[in-house]
Amino acid sequence: MIGRLEKTVLDCPDPRALAGFYAEVLGMRVNEDTDGAWVVIGREPGMRELAFQRDPDYVPPTWPDPARPQHEHLDIRVDDVDVAQEAVLRLGARLLQGEQGTGFRVFADPAGHPFCLVY
Which of 23, 30, 58, 79 is most deeply packed, by most CB within 10 A? Predict the structure, then answer.
């Protein structure tokens, strides 16, 4: 092993807002906030599991259009996809692909990053 994963970092125009979205979805808390330009969330105090950094020129992907492909995405396992879908939509996500029976549904977070609810 060369190293271990510290955290995943997502660029976005408003790190506090996107951190709040994912903290609510994942049951995490804000553990670090540097003037709203760099925000880190985690399950426990001091944990640095997912970070958000300000990029004023951020342009979201247009998945599944390859003109601006996704660079990465998060898979979030849920027990009840219908309940989870309702919750993430209420928090500001939008549905991108929601076929029934595929084992996942694709959404865009409030900054436009794709993520999947996996069930």
Answer: 23
- 66 and 112, same domain (yes or no): yes
Query: Closest Cα to residue 74, out of 5, 10, 3, 4?
Result: 10
Dihedral sign, CA of 83, 88, 92, 93? negative
- Determine the pLDDT at residue 1: 67
pLDDT 10s digits, 65-92: 888 876 777 888 899 999 999 999 999 9
Check if the beta carbon of residue 85 is closer than 8 Å to that of residue 108.
no
Do 32 and 11 sit in the same domain of this protein?
Answer: yes
